[in-house]
Write a structure and sequence with these properties.
Blueprint (H helix, E strand, L loop, with lengths): L1 H24 L1 E6 L4 E6 L4 E6 L9 H31 L9
Antiparallel strand pairs: 1-2, 2-3
Length: 101
């Protein structure tokens, strides 16, 4: 019986490693301000790119642009976390295993 549990744990570990590798190549995107600022984040929660519509660049209102960038990045990070959690949860059966996401 212990061998069976050990084998299952090893299989789960292999599946988790594969999912983590796949997440490195997946991206999520979020925008703010009606699409004037767009952030792209990998499934491993790394910021990949920021796109800013030139119309959003107003030297008189830099604060608004900063807020839009923050909003887009934060939303993209949230989406990346949700993506990772759903992929890992499919393997772990919803168990919260520290350090996986």
């Amino acid at each position: 019986m212990n061998r069976n549990i050990l084998r299952q744990a090893q299989q789960m570990q292999q599946r988790l490693a594969k999912v983590q590798e796949e997440l490195e190549h997946e991206t999520v995107e979020a925008s703010a301000g009606g699409g004037v600022v767009t952030a792209v984040v990998s499934g491993k929660q790394q910021l990949q790119s920021i796109k800013i519509d030139p119309a959003a660049v107003d030297p008189q209102d830099v604060g608004m642009l900063e807020d839009l960038v923050l909003a887009a990045v934060n939303e993209a990070m949230d989406k990346a976390q949700q993506l990772a959690a759903s992929r890992m949860g499919a393997i772990t059966g919803g168990m919260n295993i520290p350090g996986l996401t």
